[in-house]
Amino acid sequence: MAQQGFTRAVVLDEAIVFQQCDENAADSLRPGADKLLIRLSRSGLFVGLFFRSDISARKSQALREIGVSKGLHLIQTFSDQSQVLSEAQCVVVCAEKNLEEFKASLDSSWNFIAAEDSTLQLESLPFAITSLIKKELGNKITLVGHCMNWKREKDLLQRGALPFMSTFGMSFTPLDLSSSLDRQLSVVDIVLNKATDEIVSVSKVVSDTNEKWINFSDRFNKLERYLQEHPDIHVVDPTDRVTPLMDRVATQSLLEELPLIEVAAGGPIVRPPRCVKVTGFDDAALFDKLKSANLVVPTIVKPQIACGASESHTMAIVFEDRGYSNLAVPLPAVIQEYVDHQSVIFKFYVLGEQVFYSTRKSTPDAVVLRTMINTEAPSIVFDSLKTLPTGRAVDEKAAESALDITAMRSTAAVLRRKLGLTIIGFDVVVSMCVLM
């Protein structure tokens, strides 16, 4: 007898996963079935896949392979239920044609989600399941609806994030932006919004006015309009607060307004890198701008647009002044100081008031990098998505000891207040002169 409580198990009818083909062709997975199975396998719920004894040997083998690869439990009869199914509150997702068969075989306390074969939308099933959990637990949990691309979601799922089942009082559900937003957003408590995943195009020249320069997908614009009409919905994070960070010049302006934070009295400070915007590399005034910004080689050159376009990842490191001539980096661009940092970079992640960081290898000091790539060229152009050589940290522990965590927490708090964001990521390097 299933206990009353909240849903902890899901049983999928194999008819939901496979689409019927004619008798001469092999049954195949429905569109979206693989994504659904990955989501369920990482949901934190017990997931069973029900199939009948009269199916073909080929389909039986396919189901067993799916069960093994996704970590699902294969169920051929409910008369021999596992302990989890016997004790848990369950939901059965089945084809409409099989609903009465399931109801006749199963505990009356179970929930059922049935769909017509012709109208079955697998993308909507995660919300159907998580909304049941929310209905059962009410204010005991916070339901977070998230909007991000599948690659990012899949990566987070593999790390154990975004579970359907309540963990630390939170459950997560992917939003289906092609379905009714009112039905979904009237249930979720928070919208987790990755706006940069929905960029369709950006202007070649970033506007200094309020003119729209980022074009989002139609489905994302639909979500934005709904959120503007329902300001009571909590959003992490609002698009208008994220947009400035898509522009490296706007980001630099924000950072320059922040107070400098001392690591120790009279000691090193936490500051943004020196930086200047340029609209051409052969401009006669270029070196006056660099001098005014106290910038000398080596420098790193980046497009003003930080994301949303393939060219936003085209960058350069300039070793000599003559390296700016005809530099193949999209304009407008920013020229930033290249800080020698002993090949160690600290990746900081801010989630509300919590601050985390990890240590990674990074590009070598400029002289070492030039030697490693064996070039006498005055500059090199590279794609930031394709990693440059990383150096062996001379003393990673020394670099970490120079990192004052208290100062970094203060920096994170200042950034959070200034940007008005809940989730922030930023990189920190410790200048080599501090380590010597």
TrEMBL record:
Belongs to the ITPK1 family. Keywords: ATP-binding, Kinase, Magnesium, Metal-binding, Nucleotide-binding, Transferase. GO terms for molecular function: ATP binding; inositol-1,3,4-trisphosphate 5-kinase activity; inositol-1,3,4-trisphosphate 6-kinase activity; inositol-3,4,5,6-tetrakisphosphate 1-kinase activity; magnesium ion binding. It comes from the Eukaryota. The lineage of its organism: Eukaryota, Viridiplantae, Streptophyta, Embryophyta, Tracheophyta. Residues 273-430 form the Inositol 1,3,4-trisphosphate 5/6-kinase ATP-grasp domain. This is Uncharacterized protein. The keyword Lyase does not apply. GO terms for biological process: inositol trisphosphate metabolic process. Monomer. Residues 143-240 form the Inositol-tetrakisphosphate 1-kinase N-terminal domain. Its cofactor is Mg(2+).
